[in-house]
Design a protein that fits this description.
It holds the Pfam family ABC-3. This is Metal ABC transporter permease. About 80% of the residues lie in helices and about 0% in strands. It contains 14 helices and no strands.
């Protein structure tokens, strides 16, 4: 029994190591794409395109030779890391609905960006506007939760419906942008712009660094918020930090998964991990691994069968969840705080 547990942990650590290496490679790829006008980076960029062409030839595909597919896959890989990372805290705090709320808030941000573009001719990245509005929405949700006496999920439900209503009204005012709003509702890899992919890379690095730096504090407030207050931990600050990180992740994931499906990557990999994990740390590791399986498997299904990427990723994630239930030896998760 002890030998089996030790082997399992080693396999988990190997998986996390490979995931970290893959993430570093994706960030490096996006950096090379951004700096390809620089001679050294341009040489690496040309070699990467050649490698993509050779890979396409070997696999009989027409995918890896195109830079926009690099950006989409890199963005998906990074989403598969940071979404379950933040989602692990949300699920254990019974805040799964917050991801869906902030996705609708980010959609309102996209709508505002389109309206500003139509009225002023501004041609900046929509994801930056979505990020700003998403963070403001996250702060608004936290403020409502702290200031109202209603049940905890009422402010979240109000923000969810209200922000989507605002987004639809603004979209109805702008009929000249030529942008297909359906892509933002259901996700589309063509929505991933160079600036959007680079933004996702920067935000992913920041989210991972913040979680590593505040791991113990976030763990404390996740399992015993009252004790954290007694211990004079600034609970409001860490709650706000968690919600803002959720908004950041949601905006990045919006590009591929869309408003409707974005919450799935915050919840489903974590739900799968809780079925077979024995500690919070193991849940964190397994949720990231399940997230990678969902993203990579979803891209494979999407490319091979010409299906929408977002839906494919979510379906693979749900398949992982069902398999985890079958593999679980218990009916409910008994997670320790280790």
């Amino acid at each position: 029994m002890r030998h089996g547990t030790s082997l399992r942990r080693r396999l988990e650590h190997v998986g996390i190591g490979l995931t970290a290496a893959l993430a570093v490679a994706m960030v490096g790829l996006l950096a090379v794409d951004a700096l390809r006008s620089v001679p050294v980076a341009g040489g690496v960029y040309d070699q990467a395109r050649l490698a993509g062409q050779l890979l396409d030839h070997a696999l009989g595909t027409n995918v890896f030779a195109h830079p926009f597919m690099w950006r989409s896959i890199a963005t998906g890989i990074l989403i598969g890391i940071v979404a379950p990372l933040v989602g692990t805290y949300l699920v254990h705090r019974e805040m799964a609905l917050i991801g869906e709320t902030l996705a609708h808030t980010a959609f309102a941000g996209v709508a505002i960006g389109l309206l500003v573009n139509a009225m002023t001719g501004w041609d900046g990245p929509l994801m930056v506007v979505a990020l700003v509005v998403g963070v403001l929405g996250a702060l608004g949700v936290q403020w409502l939760i702290e200031r109202t006496d209603t049940y905890g999920d009422v402010p979240i439900a109000i923000m969810l419906t209200g922000s989507f209503a605002v987004g639809t009204l603004i979209i109805s005012l702008d009929r000249t942008s030529g942008i297909n709003v359906r892509d933002y509702l259901f996700g589309n890899i063509s929505v991933v712009t160079p600036s959007g992919a680079r933004l996702m890379a920067v935000l992913s690095v920041l989210v991972v660094l913040v979680v590593v730096a505040t791991y113990k504090q976030l763990l404390f407030i996740t399992f015993d918020e009252q004790a954290a207050r007694v211990a004079r931990l600034n609970v409001t600050w860490y709650n706000t930090l968690l919600i803002v990180m959720t908004a950041v992740v949601v905006v990045g994931a919006l590009q591929i998964l869309g408003v409707i499906l974005v919450a799935a990557m915050l919840v489903v990999p974590v739900a799968a991990a809780t079925q077979i994990a024995h500690s919070f740390r193991e849940t964190l590791f397994l949720s990231i691994l399940f997230g990678q399986v969902a993203v990579i498997g979803g891209f494979v299904v999407s490319i091979s069968q010409s299906l929408p990427t977002g839906g494919s990723i979510v379906v693979v994630a749900i398949a992982c969840y069902l398999l985890a239930i079958l593999a679980s030896s218990r009916s409910t998760a008994a997670i320790s705080t280790r």
